[in-house]
Request: fold
Amino acid sequence: MQIQELGYQKTPLGDLTLRRRLEPRLQNQEVFEVKLGEEYLMSSLFTESERQLATLGLSPLEGELEVVVGGLGLGYTAAEVLKNKMVNRLLVIDLFQAVIDWHQAGLVPLGKLISDDERCELKQGDFFELARTSFDAGKKFDAVLLDIDHSPEHYLDQTNESQYTSEGLVAIRNQLKPGGVFALWSNDPANEEFTKRLHEAFGSATSHNVEFPNPYTGATSVNSVYVSRNDRQ
Reply:
């Protein structure tokens, strides 16, 4: 199997790589992948739940929207946000400047579509640190969509754990407008205990399992999206 490395950066969390390959099990379909060390962060084969993060997260909202996305990856959540004509500003925050550079250089399929959209700003930064302080100089947003860790229980960096506590969730709530939405992607099926924690922090919360075919297992895989709304006004 031929694998082409398109981008590489050493980071404190491991080697970050962007790869392109052909998948023989799918008639040599072109696949783009982002890896951090030995962990897969994103694959262009599996995008349904990343796109649903944007669709489900924005569906309760009306009017002109200002949105934050935590985690750029291959850009599927950001691109789905930009399809929504109500969005007049999108701020995408990624820890790694290399990921932003890959998009701006057009090395990934959605890169130029995202980086050339005048509504979109790509910002290098630590989402979790900014969540405790401010994403943008004290400005409040209509929606914050998060796709960084594998799940609320499985973290890329153990220091991220505090963001999923009640205190960490309230910090995000404080950056939302009244009625604003926080939505979270998870690689795992929905967890009832975490949904309750979101409900306590925000005032309302739902969880959605997202099913999609997995060509490697020949079965259906399940991710999830949590959607909570700032009713603590």
